Structure formats: structure tokens, C-alpha cells
Amino acid sequence: MKIALLQCPPPTADAAAGLDRIDRAAREAGARGAALLVTPEMAVTGYAIGVDAVQDLAEPADGAYHRTIADMCRAYDIAIAYGYPEHDAGGVVYNSAQLVDASGQTRINYRKTHLFGDVDRAQFAPGAALSPVVPLGDLRVALAICYDIEFPELVRAHALAGADLVIAPTANMVPFDSICTRIVPARAEENGIGMVYANYVGTEGDYTYCGTSCIVDAGGHDLARAGATDAALLIGEFTGRRAPEGAHLADRRPDLYAALMVPNSRERHD
After folding, report:
1. DSSP string spanning 51-107?
2. How far is Cα 115 from Cα 66, in angstroms, rounded to an integer?
3. Contact by Cβ (8 Å): 111, 123
4. Model pLDDT, residue 241
5. pLDDT for 106-146, tens place per residue?
6. Nearest to 143 by CA among 114, 173, 176, 181
7. N- or C-end of the chain: fewer Cβ atoms within 10 A?
8. How far apart are alpha carbons 218 and 137 in whole angstroms?
9. Which position among 8, 59, 73, 146 bears the catalytic label?
10. Is 41 a catalytic residue?
11. Which residue out of 41, 86, 189, 204 is catalytically annotated?
């Protein structure tokens, strides 16, 4: 599958600008033969925009943002994974990502489960469940959002559920560049699956985003990687997960990992 990755500055509380940028990227990516476009975290509105702006701009999963993106998917014959602020029927707001296929149908709507620092916790409630793993073309894919992939258990859970590819819209900032260059390839290699990590560049509020977005194959090798400061539309071709003998899944010892299932299980010994 040819995958396009958009690295761009955040639209900073301007949803019309965010949707226009996604539209232009989808048109170009579709013309270049990509079957999937992945955009950054909260790509419709920007990420660090404050509680009031998030509340004002949040929409339901099937709201106007979805309808606009679905029209793009049909027009350009491309699936799009995009980030946006979602509110539920009770008005609770989540940091969400949605995968819409080329027919305009939602395949996944995922609410970020691991909230990063004060910026996430002030703006959003945590999601209650991991992304499902769903078919997209010849692949099985799952969504994660930024900080989520820093938890090895999450990516491993998707690999065990049969994912070939984990798609991660991201708003990663300086000084956490090593997530892009070290952690993302490690998650791919240790699970024998691909990763797509779409980040911002430029500044927003107090943050400077570190770019370095990437599409990584199932051995942890770059299929495409952007620079640290420039906007880019990258395309890489991902062919699938590694053969079982090339991954660690078959050699796991789940009987030894019970402590992973117990919250705050570390005991202090003075």
C-alpha cells in the first residue's frame, strides 16, 4: 500500500484552514497513487489551542468535520486518518482520530487513551478503549495518538490482535525528538509491524514541534522520513508485516508478565 504522510504547521484553532490543508494534501496524495493519507494529531483544529477553543471547536464523530473529510475521500479515492476534537452526547471532549476509507465510511474512531501532561489533561478526557484492528485494503490497521505509542503494551496489543500497521497522528514537541527517531522504529521492529507517525512542524503556544515524521517498515527501517523543520508530503510503500520468525511475538513468555496487568504493582522496599 502506498501511504502518504502530511507534516505541516498546526492550524491553531482555525478549522477551515485545517480542513483546506488536508484537502490539498489528499488531492496531491491521491494523484501520486497513495491509498492512505495520515495527518497530525488534531490536524483539523490544532493541538495546543486551549480549553475554550477545544470546547468551541469539538464536534461529534459524525459531524461536519467527518462529512467534509468523507467527501475528500470519495473525491480523491483515498482513505484519510485525521485528528480532531470530538465531543460525545454528554458534551465530554476527547482527543480523537478517525480513519475514513475511500468510500467515505468511518472504519475507526479512536479516543486517545494516554493523555500527555497538563496540556492534554486540561483539554480532554481519556478514551476508555484501544483502537480496534480493521481491514484497509490488504492490510489490518489500528490507530494510536502521539503519546500512546510510548507505551509498548499498547503497540504490542495491536500486534497480537493482528495489526500489520499502527497509524499515529502526532503533535510531538522539542525536546522529545528521540520518540521519532528511536521509539517509533523500535515499536515496529519489536512487533514486526509497520508504523506511521505524522507530526507537526513550527510553533503553537509554548511548544515548538520537532517534525521528523516517518513511515517505518516492519523491520524498523525508514520508508520515508521528513526533516525537523519543513512541511512535507511524504509517500512510502508498505508491503506488510514480517514473517513470524522475524518477530518476537512467538517467543513471548506471557506467564512471566503478570505484573504488567496489576496497576502500580511496584513495591517500595526501604
Report:
1. HHHHHHH-B-TTSHHHHHHHHHHHHHT-EEEEEEEEE-TT--EEEEEEEE-TTS-EE
2. 23
3. no
4. 80
5. 999 999 999 999 999 999 999 999 999 999 999 999 999 99
6. 114
7. C
8. 17
9. 146
10. yes
11. 41
- 109: cell is 474512531
Active site residue 146: yes
Cβ atoms of 154 and 113 closer than 8 Å? yes
pLDDT digits (tens, 9 = 90+) for 52-92: 999 999 999 999 999 999 999 999 999 999 999 999 999 99
pTM: 0.95
The residue type at 35: A
Euclidean distance between CA atoms 257 and 8, whole angstroms: 40
Dihedral class, residue 260 (left if φ above 0, else alpha if ψ from -120 to 50, else beta): alpha
- Residue written as grid cell 522529545: 176
Cell 470519495, residue?
A: 74
Give the residue among 157, 214, 139 at the shortest CA–CA distance from 184: 214
To the nearest 10°, report the CA torsion of 22, 234, 42, 135: 90
Question: Catalytic pick from 112, 180, 204, 210?
Answer: 112
Phi-psi region of 210 (alpha: psi -120 to 50; beta: other; left: phi over 0): alpha
Residue length of the chain: 270
Pick the closest to residue 85 from 117, 127, 118 (CA basis).
Answer: 127
Question: Exposed e or buried b for every residue in 14-35, given b needs 16+ CB within 10 A?
Answer: bbebbbebbbebbebbbeeebb
